[in-house]
Amino acid sequence: MSCKKFRILLSAYIDQEITKDEERKLLEHLETCTVCARELEYLEQIKRIFLLKERKEPQEFFETRLFSRIKDIRKRPAWRAYLPVFKKSILVVLIFFLLIAGWVSYKNFFYFRGTEVTSDLLMDTQLERNFEEELLEIYYGPLG
Predict the structure, then answer these.
(1) Distance CA 144, CA 141 (A)
(2) 48 lies in which domain range?
(3) Domain assignment of residue 11, yes or no
(4) Along the 144 residues of the chain, how does pLDDT read in single tens digits?
């Protein structure tokens, strides 16, 4: 067997839930494999910690309170059950949109290019035609 299969047997070995044949094979493997032996020590330490821990009895009417809370949770609207999950993502999206809005307003404030044209640059159509004629006369001479 591979180490992977023996590691699965370690927990059953600690709880004394394996056959004698499996136990014999496991002990033979542990003599040669230090990694699995360390894993066994680790699991035994965890078991000792739980055995030493004082067992507490539940408070009076614990089950009644528990089941009533479960019923209350079922009565709540579905969106309230998912709200804690989405709080952070909603906050991230809100911050993203605020940053975009700030960036757009910054661009509009500091990079504003006015569309107004000063009145001395405005020409009416007649003046524009006269200007074109003057240019043509300058470059090509008087028109016939």
Answers:
(1) 9
(2) 3-52
(3) yes
(4) 678 888 888 888 888 888 999 999 989 989 998 998 999 999 999 888 888 777 778 888 888 999 888 888 777 777 676 777 777 888 889 999 999 988 888 777 666 555 555 555 555 666 677 777 888 888 787 766
